[in-house]
Amino acid sequence: MHRLLIVFAIFIVAGCTSANAPRPQLNEVPTPVSQLPRPTATIGPSPTTLPPLATVSTFDEAVISTAGLNEIEQQLIALYQRAHLAVVSLDVVVDQSANLPPGHPPVSPDGLVGQGSGFLFDTQGHIVTNHHVVAGATNIQVRFANGATVLADLVGSDPDSDLAVIRLTNLPEGLEPLPLGDSGALQVGQTAVAIGSPFGEQNTLTVGVISGLGRTLRAPARSFGSFSIPNVIQTDAAINPGNSGGPLLNLRGEVIGVNTAIAVSLGGRDFEGVGYAVPASTVARVVPALISQGRYDHPWLGISMTTVDTLFAQRFGLSIDRGVLIGAVQPGSPAAVAGLRGGTTSATYRGLPVQIGGDVIIACNDEAVFSSDQLVGIIDRFQVGDQITLTIWRDNESVTVPVTLAARP
């Protein structure tokens, strides 16, 4: 599989797959109101006090009988008991002048437009969800496990990681935040648990495994290129419209990711076995910045690039068969300042345009680079202002180049 990636930073995506198999579309998964099982209503003011959640939960750990249940079932019951109160459903009203997604049904001025999920991040009432769930919101209503509702204010949002933070105007007693886990320690085959509100069915638990690591999702395009979300977790735990923004958990009840997208066949919409979650490592970096500053500055390299493999090298007579070929260097970017060279000759590979003749990045901080997606994931570990060392292949020899990462424009 070959991917042509247009990149000017840590977030890059574009791609083509093999000529015989179209790449599945990646769909965000908020639920339109027309699909919600409950009727819509105008969002009103929040109550001055909310009942403690722990006293009204349908489930009580003290009275659950574990007789006849196997170890995994007991773990899942205990996990749900610990985690489900901190998972909320979001009802979102958006500005009617904003551009709605293609095919979205008309809505009245006081009608709900979308629904998603979220989870409590800290004791100050901050809720983490997806950017695409709350984008353009004029009102956000949070619905708790017992059915109580309260309004929330948008604190900050980052489309390039698809993360957002809202803050409750009233935090009920008995609500404890979910801890973040170590997504860097995940292994394929590990149990994954999603809790959210698919199709408006609140506090639904689904179970699967970690199906893959290091995936890349498309993020919003900019005027000067496309970006992507790197190091994404793939899971087969069922994720459907309305799960967006809800937590993906390990068996210890730690958040290892934020459910954000599903892969569907052309023309499809519902879950077909491939879901994606923004990793907890990204949450740990981005969310505190959203809380303190309302935004997150992503490090920027400033190149377009194409993965080099054996077939690509053979096609164009390259003397190296792995790495990332630089196609273009954005003027004024960190790559331009460092003197990296872009391509000099236009060509076509598998129906897509490429620039040949530029530097080939073969390592970053002595870590071998084999693909564009991998390089994106490596850069994602750093912060604005960090200096990295790229090893490049130029004129049939390797050269090291220091590059200081700047904030993406």
TrEMBL record:
Alphabetical UniProt keywords: Hydrolase, Oxidoreductase, Protease, Signal
Domain PDZ: 299-396
Signal peptide: 1-21
Keyword Oxidoreductase annotated: yes
Superkingdom of origin: Bacteria
Upper taxonomic lineage: Bacteria, Bacillati, Chloroflexota, Chloroflexia, Chloroflexales
Protein's GO biological process: proteolysis
EC number: 1.3.1.74
Keyword Cell membrane on entry: no
GO molecular function: 2-alkenal reductase [NAD(P)H] activity; peptidase activity; serine-type endopeptidase activity
Pfam annotation, one family: Trypsin_2
Name assigned to this protein: 2-alkenal reductase
EC class name: oxidoreductase
Region (Disordered): 27-48
